[in-house]
Amino acid sequence: MSFLNKNIFKTIAVLAIIILAAILFIKLVPYIIVAGLAIWLILKFTKKVDKTNKDKDYKIKNDSFKTQNTGFSNEKETIIDVDYTEVKH
Questions:
Q1: CA angle at residue 44 from 43 to 45, to 5 degrees?
Q2: What distances in angstroms separate CA 83 from CA 69, 80, 86, one per listed residue?
Q3: What single DSSP character describes residue 77?
Q4: Cα–Cα distance between 77 and 46 in angstroms, integer?
Q5: Half-sphere exposure in the Cβ direction for 16 (13 Å, CA)
């Protein structure tokens, strides 16, 4: 019967470690989930902010192209009056 006592303490120690690990894991899972969700939301938000900043820069560049002077303005240039005759077929 002495051979039974040798493995009982080892088995009890392993079971105690497994039970403690399970309890610790169960208590930490909600914190791990919340931390993961927070990191995911922060990354999602920063990507969205970066995208909107790029869109604003793109719109500003496009607006600057639209407002350029095309050379057909009558305010700065002198108007030349040309006499012409209409050609009939």
A1: 90
A2: 28, 10, 10
A3: S
A4: 49
A5: 6
Backbone φ and ψ of 39, nearest 5°: -65, -45
Under DSSP, is residue 65 helix (H, G, I), strand (E, B) or coil?
Answer: helix
Q: If phi over 0 gives left and psi between -120 and 50 gives alpha, with beta otherwise, what is residue 59?
A: alpha
Both tokens of 69, joined, read 């002077």
- Residue in 57, 60, 37 with CA at minimum distance from that of residue 49: 57
CA angle 45, 50, 56 (to 5 degrees): 125
pLDDT of 57-88, one tens digit each? Answer: 666 665 555 555 555 555 666 677 788 788 88
Mean pLDDT of the chain: 78
**Tokens representing residue 85 in the block:** 């005759």
